[in-house]
Amino acid sequence: MTNSAASVDDLVLANLPLIGYAVSELLHRVPPSVSRDELASAGSLALVLAARAYDPTTGVPFARYASLRIRGALLDELRSMDWASRGARQRVRELAATSERLTAALGRAPSRTELAGAMGTDVAAVDRAAQETARRVLSIDAADPAVTDMVRDDSPNPEEALLTAERLHWLRAAVHTLPERLRVVVEGIFLQDRSVAELADELGVTQSRISQLRTEALSLLRDGLNANLEPDLVHTGERPDGVAERRRQMYFASVAARAAMASTPSAVPGVVPTQRAAAMPAVSA
Length: 285
Hints:
Helix 5 packs across helix 6. The protein is mainly α and 285 residues long. About 10% of the residues have low confidence. It has three domains: 76 residues, Rna Polymerase Sigma Factor, Chain: A; 51 residues, Arc Repressor Mutant, subunit A, CATH 1.10.10.10; 122 residues, Orthogonal Bundle (Arc Repressor Mutant, subunit A), CATH 1.10.10. The protein is elongated and about 85 Å long. 69% of the residues lie in helices and 0% in strands. GO terms for molecular function: DNA binding; sigma factor activity. One of its GO terms (biological process) is DNA-templated transcription initiation. This is Sigma-70 family RNA polymerase sigma factor. Keywords: DNA-binding, Sigma factor, Transcription, Transcription regulation.
């Protein structure tokens, strides 16, 4: 989905503070040589792209969706700052380890000659390693472990992306097929950030009843998904011929019919799956 230029501008202007929050949080965990301006530039571009791609019909708040896109862009920017080759990073780590070991043994900072002897090399090589350490912008392997964890590539592979997209496709169909009252509760709590009290007032029931409807809806969603994706996980009701079980079976069939009529999920999750994943809880078997 592509939004109009006016709506994109409105979303960007209203959510500019997200960039500052994300950049400030990240700067506390990286070397001081990392440029705030470069991170802010990457975050700004991500915000604009998020505003262009945002689909309000998913019900996911834009701020939540944009925050994920901005954070991902900042981590990509950090990866691009890692100038050092693998050999250079290894020399930096070796020099640091040797320096720490000799300092502890000698009770003082070691000389260049002592470092060269301990490393089995010459003074020139020690000087080169020291220069690489001084001009290091951000070495992913040698940086603080917290930064290393942050810049890991945890994105799904193509097979995982396809499975995720397919499951979200079925989840969307299952939510739309829920009985109206259950659907209102699920969409209100998980997609619209509405409170239990607000939903209780709208439906004219108690807050505890809303909690019961939520539990009932999630159970039905789980069985609706499993009936079509993993049938062995679906438990048969106590009365297979009873009215309640027949209604469940009708719901399962309706979910399958709606999913079949909808478009086939893409192999690579796009904007809609990403936004849905940010809002809906995992419906476990």
